Amino acid sequence: MSRSGRLGWYAGTAVVLAVAVLPVLWIVSLSLKSPATITDKRPWPVDPTLENYRSIAGSALFTRALLNSVGIGLTTTVLAVALATPAAYALTRLRFRGEALVLPLTLAVAVFPPVALVGPLFDLWRALGLYDTWAGLVIPYLSFALPLAMWTLTAFFRGLPWEMEEAAQADGATPWQAFRRVLVPLARPGVLTAAILVFFFAWNDFVFAISLTSSDRSRTVPAALAFFPGDERFAQPVGSIAAAAVVVTVPVLVATLVFQRRLVAGLTAGVVKR
Amino acid sequence: MSRIELRELSACPPDGTSAVLHEISLAVEDGELLTVAGPSGSGKTTLLRALIGLADTPAGTVRLDGEDATDWAPAERDMAMVFQDHAPYPHLRVRDNLALPLRLAGLPADEVAERVREVADRLQLTVHLDRRPSQLSAGQRQRVAVGRVLVRPAPAAYLLDEPLSAEPALRGRLRAMVAGTTTVWVTPDVTEAATVGDRVAVLRDGRLAQLGTPQDLAERPASLDVAALAPLTVLPGSIEAGSLRLPIGTLPTARPDRDAVLVGIRPADLRPDGDGVRITLLADEGGVQPDGTARLRHPALARAAEQDPAVSPEVLARVDPAGRRAVPVVLDPARVLLFDPETGVAL
């Protein structure tokens, strides 16, 4: 690469990094500022304090929302993976009528705009008693998470060496042993990828969470942020919101970094034919 | 160890709707090594899959020691199979790959370790035991696949689909290791089939073209297909009043008249001297090549490589490197093979 080309490369990288990372750093910085300095417009905290974190940790509003987020996220993940894994297995391994339609139809469901669903769901959930419950959020999440998980898993399963199943049977395994000892270990990275994607989808959702809840009972963190009280009337609770935002971002960041390679491998599975 | 018998067995591949094996009847005796040869697509692999129970068998039976095993699951048949292109289990280290069949069979841990050590030693895999398959070469992976089969204490049979195709040097050793156990060994290479097998089965388009000892196949091929698996010069001819007319000359024959026959001449039957009809071949310009081969042709045949008569090594040894162009050879008329041009069946 020429000198000017390299400079251009660095400049481009810097711009992308700035756009992606600066807001996050700004939020971290805000979360460490005291109420007195929060509006000082400086990029770093002059007098860093954990006061905001202590305040949200002591607030039932936030801890309950965190519990809701984790609970609803995990429930969605377990259900989506438990349903999508056999579905993807069937789509990969079985030939049946209409098979070619299943994946496109699930995709059609997944691209449906959530906002269009919120109104009808609001009315329906109130009639059914699902409004402001965990199930009231898990169900709409599943309708988006299932297609996501099915696509990820189907792509992954298509790349699995299914001959291994036969090899195991030739080695004296029963079909169940072949599945347990050979296929399940091989499928684990794909299932993990699908689980992480689904969990993040549920974890990050705002539209359903704000519309289909009305109390601490099932409000998740992204929705609860809007209900943080200020220190005084009319004061914006910027510090607490920033601290809460950091707390909910950290697990996403950590998981992405830890599973980075698997996520990429899982997401691109089936892209290149082996 | 077992006697395997197929009776009019038809079989389909896993994805296929139509049978690729048609009414195969053959028996592999207890302890015998049967090689299965044939061009690709002739049904060799499907035959092995039918034997172990991984193929659909719409018709016919598989019998193990006289018992009808057609509907038995692979695990019940207790055969050990090396698949053609199945790599070792990618998630297991070599050691655990080799141990899996023994663990499935419920052998105690110390016996498993002992047998794995022994097989790894015989297949030169000891230093690789703690590696993952992804860290191995193609040949090493094939050895792991073979090892997974050899490690089993006393399988009913070994089924080997082109074993060690990347490691020809180890085939002799493998031959010794399976000796005494009923074995079906698939190979596309006829020379390998004849060298390794007690008997050879030749498949063609999913049918059994011939079954016999390597000598049977060489002396009396049942069809042009079988004969052509080895080097063979094929010429068109006709029989008229006791004379077999060929482009390269006329041979006496006792056969009845025929308008058209195909005549196969084996290299070993074009000899430098002896009884028979004398034919004069021409050595190509340049005489003998550095690798010991020479291109010989006949003036009546087109100048194309596939038309060049293949000759015995003794004749080649007579070709004058300095370029004497005429090479006399002798053909024993009794040794030529005659085939029906329509069906390819030996006459």
State the distance separating the first and last CA atoms of chain B. Answer: 39 Å
Structural class of chain B: alpha+beta
Tell me about the biggest sheet of chain A? Answer: none
Spans of chain B of at least 5 consecutive residues whose pLDDT stays below 50 are none
Per CATH, the class of the domain at 60-227 in chain A reads: Mainly Alpha
Backbone CA Rg of chain B: 24 Å
Helical proportion of chain A, percent range: over 70%
Flag low-confidence runs of chain A. Answer: 270-274
Tell me the overall shape of chain B: globular
Largest interface: A-B, 18 and 24 residues
Described by its quaternary structure, the protein is heterodimer
Order of helices and strands of chain A: HHHHHHHHHHHH
CATH architecture of the largest domain in chain B: 3-Layer(aba) Sandwich
CATH topology name of the domain at 60-227 in chain A? MetI-like fold
Radius of gyration of chain A: 23 Å
Residue share in β-strands of chain B = 25-35%
* Assigned CATH superfamily of the largest domain in chain B: P-loop containing nucleotide triphosphate hydrolases
